[in-house]
Amino acid sequence: MTYRAWFKCIRADCGQTYPLDAIVYNCRKCGALLEVEHDMAALAARTAAGWKELFEERYRSTALPYSSGVWGKKEWVLPEIEDTNIVSLHEGATPLLWAERFGKAIGLPDVWIKLCGTTHTGSFKDLGMTVLVSQVKQMMARGAPIKAVACASTGDTSAALAAYCAAAGIQAVVLLPRGKISIAQLIQPISNGALVLSLDTDFDGCMRLVQQITRDETIYLANSMNSLRIEGQKTVGIEIVQQFGWQVPDVIIIPGGNLGNVSALGKGLLMLKQLGLVDRLPRIVVAQAERANPLYRAYLRNFETFEPVQAQKTLASAIQIGNPVSYEKAVRTLKQFGGIVEQATEEELADAAALGDRCGLFNCPHTGVALAVLIKLLRAGKIDKAERVVVISTAHGLKFVEMKVDYHQRKLEMPCRYANEPVELPARLDAVKEALDKALASRASGA
């Protein structure tokens, strides 16, 4: 069976299409975003049982390129890519962790964390970047005039782009907001040889500039408004269902910034239902930081109007975005999935991340936003205690150690409820024993 895919305008009243090797990011007719459309009739020729068997056979195998969690679902992602042009760093196939102790702490027994941060560069952005860079490599091999691939980033996108371009031998260009990303995020593109432009603006300012420079077709755009990224990121939802033995959870909570990942999650789940692998869909919850919450504000108005905001400084720096480019796609997804949007304050997200860490996790602040929103919705009765809930952990906590250090040293402008400062002592046995006795007595009393 021959499988095909192409770009299509997201607006039903337009429907313009373009080949995947076209250098196009918005519809040339109406200006809307594009999405990758698949030949669903061809995909449906294989039974649901047949797809499950194929995906299970490939999952975590050593056979290239299927050892990747993304490329193990190649027919649903980028079916016409040649294997020799696939640029993979064994992304995906990340753990789905039962957060038993955290669940007990908040009163929700069936809560799971999808650990997307255990992939190569430490965030879910790898899932989309393997697809985009692979397609660019194929386009260049066929004569496209591309000289570099560029993105605006709050950190994780730039790390993924730089790594995959380095693996492919393609020049990466990243535009970063100066002083607004962690050192760990900054050093990743530097180490991988990207041209790093540190600009005196915020992410939205970087995004405006990268859209302007990529009007030159020799510079290819890698932000999530390029729907090739969505094709890789949509495998998160598919993989969650596969890891549950092809059972659908009740709720999936995902942090939201530029909002490409929201539509990606929905797209993968919809493909599962359309092709008969599942018979129902979960609710999707988008979690936003209170200081960067344009989607939440629109949700309160039933999405009747959308107004960009000036994003304020937040511990959840990767979602410090006031004018998300994928807003229209995200709203469509939320309406399809009975979605909810909720926000978290700085104190709420920091405490939720720290509580999760105390239960054996090591959360990035954006996962903290999602955990805080879970706690709020549970307390409000919008999530039932009997439901199975999955929280998407978007990045590894080691990329945000400065935030964690400040929290535990009580340097943040909040009580830091779960702060755990080192106890400084003289190197004497009596002092150590006294500290041990005090700590163990406190633990026994539940203090």
Q: What does this protein look like?
A:
This protein has helices at 40-43, 48-58, 74-77, 100-106, 125-141, 156-168, 183-191, 203-213, 228-233, 235-243, 260-274, 294-300, 327-336, 346-358, 365-379, 401-408, 429-445, and strands at residues 5-9, 17-18, 34-38, 96-98, 111-115, 148-152, 171-177, 195-199, 219-221, 251-255, 283-289, 340-344, 389-393. With 447 residues, the chain is an alpha/beta fold. The chain has 17 helices and 13 strands. Helix content is 39%, strand content 14%. Strands 4-5-13-10-11-12 form a six-stranded mixed sheet, with helices on both faces. Strands 8-7-6-9 form a four-stranded parallel sheet. A three-stranded antiparallel sheet has the order 2-1-3. The relative contact order is 0.12. Strand 10 (251-255), helix 11 and strand 11 form a beta-alpha-beta unit. Helix 6 runs parallel beside helix 7 (183-191). The model has no long low-confidence stretch (mean pLDDT 96). The chain has a domain at 96-122 and 230-408: 3-Layer(aba) Sandwich (Rossmann fold).
What's a quick, concise take on this entry?
This protein has 447 residues and is of the alpha/beta class. It has helices spanning 40-43, 48-58, 74-77, 100-106, 125-141, 156-168, 183-191, 203-213, 228-233, 235-243, 260-274, 294-300, 327-336, 346-358, 365-379, 401-408, 429-445, and strands at residues 5-9, 17-18, 34-38, 96-98, 111-115, 148-152, 171-177, 195-199, 219-221, 251-255, 283-289, 340-344, 389-393.
